[in-house]
Amino acid sequence: MLMRAKSVTEQARRAQIVQAAIATIAELDYAETSFKAIAARAGLSSTGLISYHFRNKQELVDVVFADILERFQAFVIERMDQPTARAELEAFLRANIAFLREHRADMLAFLRIRAHAAVTDGGIADSDHVALAELLRQGQEAGEFRAFDPDVMAVFILAMRNGVVLRSGALDLDVCERELVAAVELATGG
Fold this sequence. Notes:
TetR family transcriptional regulator; Homeodomain-like_sf; mainly alpha; HTH_TetR; DNA-binding; transcription; 72% helix
């Protein structure tokens, strides 16, 4: 089947709907998010405009999830090339908070729809954990970190990061960044 290319107007409308979906999910959570709520936020006259671009809520959630994941990964990876494991770990933490600072609704929506997204995220939770545990192992081998179980420490670090995301609306992110970096530094030792 030959698919026609989407016009600039269609691409813009689709992007508008995705952004409205992100804001709606961040505000209302997944279960309360509907095409009606998204249409209202986007200023659309009808939910039919959403249905034109997305077959159902699941397809829209999958597109939202993939969009946020792609932007988040690019943002963090761009800041990760550091000379030592300790510096790379700190860069990872600071990049996560920086993305959250600039894109709070995106991160909140991402965590809220993660379990509902049908698209594979490439096992992002697992890949985050595996990559972080490997970074911690490398730091231990280089003598930058104390002895600990890298897999368990990776779980703790990611749990702290996710906790900051979920509570970020009530927290000063500058303080969060400073305390998250300090807590991880203390936990990993040197």
